Amino acid sequence: MNLIERLPELDDVELKNLHDNARRLMEAGSEKQRLAAAELLPAVERVMAARKAQRGKAMAARAAQRRALAPRSRKPEAQGASPA
Question: How many domains is the chain built from?
Fold first, then answer.
């Protein structure tokens, strides 16, 4: 199994470290390291973007659930007006 196939198994910290290392090697690595990083970096960025989108959807779902469960507040009656 190569590294690109293992990307989904990595946790967020490992994925960020791999991303940072690949970017560094793109700038300062040997020719072989640059080629490997150039192949790896787009795949890492796709996985990171997918996870970010997934977290955003999960947050939106939780916010919608909280709004649905929250008690609805009544509008305050106008001052000085008597109820009917």
Answer: 1
